[in-house]
Structure formats: structure tokens, C-alpha cells
């Protein structure tokens, strides 16, 4: 079929391929990609080059001055739209900066995703398939997406939220049902992305834009975009801090999150590499806590009974279980200043306990504000914009005062970050604003007639 293209179709295919290559590629590779005859290809390149749409230095092709001018004009339009959205949102400058992403991978530019079927309607039907409501962080993620929908209600006809309750097959059915109900776009925080892959592929095939959030690293899983934060950084920075705090020697506990969840796997793998590089460090036990406070408390309590003062530090990938570990040391009779160094943030209670008991703490908050970004990216794709295939939302390093080490410095001190006036189960870095209270959160957005969040109360153990 490619051999029957006319010149216009071939030129469009060439420009699309160039865009997918971030605006520059080898000429031969582009020709092979679009399947154009050599003579036709070079004739079209020459025409485009004369118009200033492309430039063709020897052996390669790149965006030309006319195309650059169009891109710049579009960028200005996007910046104006971003400014308008920022004015509608009520969060502070600092939180707004956290909500915006470092929209690039660690190495160079990120490929752009081509829009699917462009929706001409001014308002879109959006579905959010949420993996779970098993902890406070999941509540904050839902609240963030709802908050964004309320502030962008001029672009949204309806937001539907379904919770899979950690059941991958149930989530797959939820996604299929939302497609059948005619959603224009989906946000998916997958229980296991590979299991949901067939349902995601069905959505994409039907022109439904799909933005994965929190989980979905595997590039084989189809999606319009993936919004995440750097889980390897969370594991690496916190483990490095603990190793430096202990001067490279000592016995530690490692309390990871959910065994089946990508973020927990990546954080633990990064931490283990750091610990393995310090011959004087010994991991007494590595345990999975499912990000549950009471599970962290139980495991740490048993470890204290077994090893006692041998425990020189506790590595946690989140304060969801870290708060439980800190409480276990309090339960065991440790006095102020005696609890060994801990890692793990996110949860307000973890910061409260560390400060109150003067336990050195290092955390890299996992920002639920990625849900806000996911909705913004999804709407951009539905309007026909090319969007980054990977977006990393910035995360910040939080240390208790005096806990800075040789290579780990804080973005903020825990004493300035904690919210003594708000509930223990508050998740920080939500992007919603300084007055956000998960227990009194009420919201109105299209499709929500009762002004109540779709997030259900978390289990008492999470509070």
C-alpha cells in the first residue's frame, strides 16, 4: 500500500516520521520507515527543503526554519494555556512547581506520542481506572484528579472513577466497560500493567487516548503517555543517605512496599545496589509491607524483639509503613533521640513521629500530583496535540534538621514540611493546595452530583 501513496501522502508520512524522531533522523532510516521509493523520497525532501519545512544536511534530515517557527508559535499557545490553567488552580508557587514535571527522561529528549482521533467536541468524557484504595496515598491520587477535573470543568463533560481493589481482572473489566460507555480518554493506574495491556490496546485501537499514571514502565504496553516520578531516585537517594549516615557500616532493616507493584520493585532494587556497594552494611531482613502502617509496625516490632540494639537503621520506601516502624520503636520503649535513622516520607504521621522523637529521617516524597498532570496531558492529547510519551513529575528530598550527609542535601527540612495542623493520614505533595485535608475533602466536578469524592475512607490502620 505504501507504494501507491501520492506525493502529498508521502510528504505527510515523512513529516510524521520526523516528528516521531524528535525532529532529526538519518535520511536512509526515514525512507525505510515510510517505505518510499528513493527517487520520490528525495524529490519530496527537496520540495520541503525549498519551502523551509526541513533541512537536509548530508545524510540526515531535520526540522527546517519554517517548521521551527510553527513549533515556536504552538509552544507559545501552550504556554498561554498553561498560564491560564495555573491561574485557575489555587495551589502556591512551590506546589505548582512540584505539579509541573521535568518532562524529559534522564537521557535526552523523550519521544512524542502522535494524537489518536482528534475530538472536535469542546468537552470530553474521561474515565479513571484506579488500582486500589488500600492506603492514604491512593486517596490523595484520586483527590488530585478530581480537583483537576473541577478546575478544568470547561473541558470535561464527565469524569467517572472506578476502583479495582487490587484485582487485575476486575480492572480489565472496568476498562472495557468504560470504553463501551463511550469515554474519550482514560487515566489508568494499573494493578499490573501487563494484565491490563489487552484492554488498554483495545482502547487505543478505538481511538481512546490512554494516559498511564504511577505504573506502566514497560514500553511494550500501549499508551498515549506515562506520567510517573523517579522511583529509582527514591530508592537510591534514601539508601545513600542511610549508608552515609551510618558511615558505611551497620545492620539495617529494609521494609519495602507492595511486592507486586512496579514502584516498590524499582525502589528496592535501587536501594539494594547502594547497600551492596558498602561492605560494612548488613541487611538483617527484607520484608514487604504492602505500604500498610500496621504491617510495618508488626514487622519492625518483631525485628526489635529479635535484634534489639543491633538495628542501626531502617530503610523504608515510604512513610506509609515507615510510620509503623517508628511507632514500633516507641512501643519498645526507645526514648527521644534513641530511635535509629529511618527513611520514608509521603505520610504526615511519619514526619510527625520522626520530629517528635528526634529520629533522623530522609524522604523523597512520591507526589500524588502526578494525577493532576495526567489529566492535563490527557486533555492535551484529546485536543490533537503531540504529547511526551514519558513525563516525570518532580519529587523533593526532605530531611530532618541536622541530618544532611556528604552527598544528600534537602530541598526542604521536615520541620518546615510537616503539617501539625492537619490529620496524620495527610499525604504531602498532593498538588491540591495548603488547605487540603483528606478527611474533609469535598469536590464538585462534572458527573459528581453529590459533591463527594469517589475515594472511600481508607482503613483505620492507614490513619
Poorly predicted residue ranges: 89-108, 457-463
Shape field: globular
CATH architecture of the largest domain, by name, is 3-Layer(aba) Sandwich
Question: Could you please say which CATH topology of the largest domain applies here?
Answer: Rossmann fold
Distance between the termini: 60 Å
Query: Strand portion, in percent?
Result: 15-25%
* Rg: 24 Å
Structural class: alpha/beta
The oligomeric status of these chains comes to single chain
CATH class of the largest domain, named Alpha Beta
Main β sheet profile: 7 strands, mixed
Mean of residue pLDDT? 87
- Kindly state the number of beta strands: 19
Widest sheet: strand order? 4-17-10-9-8-6-7
Binned, the helix content reads 40-55%
CATH superfamily of the largest domain: Response regulator
**Count of structural domains:** 3
Question: How are the secondary structure elements laid out?
Answer:
Elements: H1 7-20, E1 24-26, H2 27-34, H3 38-50, E2 54-55, E3 60-63, H4 65-88, H5 93-99, E4 101-102, E5 112-113, E6 124-130, H6 136-151, E7 156-163, H7 168-180, E8 185-189, H8 193-205, E9 209-213, E10 225-228, H9 231-245, E11 249-256, H10 262-276, E12 280-288, H11 293-307, E13 311-316, H12 319-331, E14 342-343, H13 348-356, E15 361-364, H14 370-382, E16 387-388, E17 390-393, E18 397-399, E19 412-413, H15 414-417
Parallel strand pairs: 6-7, 6-8, 8-9, 9-10, 10-17, 11-12, 11-13, 14-15, 18-19
Antiparallel strand pairs: 1-3, 2-3, 4-17, 5-16, 15-18
Helix pairs in contact: 1-2, 6-14, 7-8, 9-10, 11-12, 12-13
